[in-house]
Specification:
217 residues; alpha+beta; four-stranded mixed sheet; two-stranded antiparallel ribbon; globular
């Protein structure tokens, strides 16, 4: 039985690396390096038998096509690595992951089907023009309409058993907590004149009235 060669992580990342120059507020630019989401998904699916089986069964239940694309879900949040009893805010980072609803709740809930191509320091987000929405816009453009865009030509997945699966998908959800949605959608949040992201007719008049108007959230 042939064994797959295990490459060092640095070499594996180099094959997927994407570099985008983003302008800084105070002049100059920042070279943003991250893993190409399409290439990362293709690599992981071809090398992870359990995940490959999830895609195979999901495709049997709901074959992806340009007319019936899968549901792409993106989620992002900040976290501080290290000692949770002595948090160091300077190490805080934004993490973005994505998955597909068709893979099923079990696969998504245990993290098997979560692909994480982006981790970036929060301090850098504050220096780049446009902040996190700028990063998010560029990421969505690459995964949806890039070289192997899910919303255009499709992503040519090769499963662990050698069969091919052209994958098409459209965005079905953008998930985060309240502060993450504020940061990602360039929204002022609860302190803004329109504090509700869901209901367009809610205005910030006073705390009591706002609560009564937005009791559906």
């Amino acid at each position: 039985m042939l064994q797959r060669e295990v490459l060092p992580n640095s070499i594996r990342f180099d094959s997927l690396e994407v570099i985008e120059d983003l302008p800084l507020d105070k002049g100059g630019s920042f070279a943003w390096k991250y893993a190409d989401p399409c290439g990362l998904l293709m690599m992981v699916v071809s090398e992870a038998p359990l995940l490959s089986e999830c895609f195979k069964h999901a495709a049997a239940r709901s074959p992806p096509s340009p007319d019936r694309p899968w549901s792409l879900v993106l989620a992002w949040d900040e976290f501080c690595p290290g000692n949770k009893l002595q948090v160091d805010p300077s190490r805080k980072a934004m993490v973005l992951s994505f998955t597909f609803l068709e893979l099923g709740q079990d696969a998504i809930a245990n993290g098997l089907a979560l692909i994480t191509p982006v981790v970036i320091r929060t301090g850098i987000l504050r220096k780049v023009t446009g902040g996190w929405p700028n990063f998010l816009r560029r990421f969505l453009r690459r995964i949806l309409v890039g070289q192997n865009g899910l919303a255009t030509v499709g992503m040519p997945l090769v499963l662990a058993d050698g069969t091919s699966l052209p994958l098409f998908a459209n965005v079905a959800g953008l998930l985060s907590d309240g502060d993450g949605l504020r940061a990602g959608l360039d929204w002022k949040g609860h302190a803004g004149l329109k504090p509700c992201l869901r209901h367009y007719n809610v205005w910030k008049l006073d705390i009591v009235k706002r609560a009564s108007l937005c009791n559906m959230c």
